[in-house]
Amino acid sequence: EPEVTQTPSHQVTQMGQEVILRCVPISNHLYFYWYRQILGQKVEFLVSFYNNEISEKSEIFDDQFSVERPDGSNFTLKIRSTKLEDSAMYFCASSQAGVVAGELFFGEGSRLTVL
Amino acid sequence: GESVGLHLPTLSVQEGDNSIINCAYSNSASDYFIWYKQESGKGPQFIIDIRSNMDKRQGQRVTVLLNKTVKHLSLQIAATQPGDSAVYFCAERRDYKLSFGAGTTVTVRA
């Protein structure tokens, strides 16, 4: 069964450092998303990406965040200068037809710990 | 602000019994709702969805009920099994993105 894969599974970084989280969405999907989940809290929307551009972003997704699809398979989330409050589990998701048509497939997440 | 939430943060259920997980939402403009299951250390996994023009939808061992009058969504799991132990989130679609509720942790007792 096709799945969304994410790397790394866990990254520890110092405050102020840049972090890149990587995702390989399901191959025939066209819509890509990043969500995050702070420990014990709900899953929060960060950004959606379609046709090589951001289609929507939340208030959390400020200038420190960026996304990129550098090639035909990878979808990355970059945090330019990490803060303590960026510590969370980051989930990548993809869908064939966007939230309009339904199901998002989530990866297993990348846990980011900022010290 | 918060628009999707669950009534109880935890639910303990005896194996074999039915589970009912509840969710209240406040945005009447939401037109699509989804239940996700999240097992420890994993990402959310789609369980079942329902559109706002429906009241009930059934899947394998799961049923979702939507009461638009009181803005209430529930997930019923029949004959709960140990593998059902997880955190369950409801999510609503609004403005072409999903907003998740806080989650209910379901623990199945043997």
Indicate the CATH class of chain B: Mainly Beta
Chain-averaged pLDDT of chain A: 92
Let me know the largest β-sheet of chain B.
6 strands, mixed
Task: Write the CATH fold name of chain B.
Answer: Immunoglobulin-like
Number of domains of chain B: 1
The CATH topology of chain A is given as Immunoglobulin-like
Order of helices and strands of chain A: EEEEEEEEEHEE
The span between the termini of chain A is 37 Å
Poorly predicted regions of chain A are: none
Q: Describe it for me?
A:
The complex is a heterodimer of chains A (115) and B (110). Chain A is mostly beta strands. Chain A has a single domain (5-114), classed as Immunoglobulin-like (Sandwich), CATH 2.60.40. Chain A is built from 1 helix and 11 strands; from the N terminus they run βββββββββαββ. In chain A, strands 2, 4, 5, 6, 9, 10 and 11 form a 7-stranded mixed beta sheet that branches. A 4-stranded antiparallel beta sheet of chain A has the order 1-3-8-7, with no helix packed on it. The longest helix of chain A has 4 residues, at 98-101. Chain A starts with a strand and ends with a strand. In chain A, 35% of the residues are buried. By secondary structure, chain B is mostly beta strands. Helix content of chain B is 0%, strand content 57%. Chain B starts with a strand and ends with a strand.
Keywords:
A: Immunoglobulin-like, four-stranded antiparallel sheet, 1 helix, B: 110 residues, mainly beta, Immunoglobulin-like, six-stranded mixed sheet
Question: How would you summarize this macromolecular structure in one to three sentences?
Answer:
Helices cover 3% and strands 50% of the residues of chain A.
Write the layout of secondary structure elements.
The complex is a heterodimer of chains A (115) and B (110).
Chain A: E1 5-7, E2 10-13, E3 19-24, E4 31-37, E5 43-50, E6 53-57, E7 65-68, E8 75-79, E9 88-95, H1 98-101, E10 105-106, E11 110-114
Parallel strand pairs in A: 2-11
Antiparallel strand pairs in A: 1-3, 3-8, 4-5, 4-9, 5-6, 7-8, 9-10, 9-11
Chain B: E1 4-6, E2 10-14, E3 19-25, E4 32-38, E5 45-51, E6 56-58, E7 62-67, E8 72-77, E9 86-94, E10 97-100, E11 104-109
Parallel strand pairs in B: 2-11
Antiparallel strand pairs in B: 1-3, 3-8, 4-5, 4-9, 6-7, 7-8, 9-10, 9-11
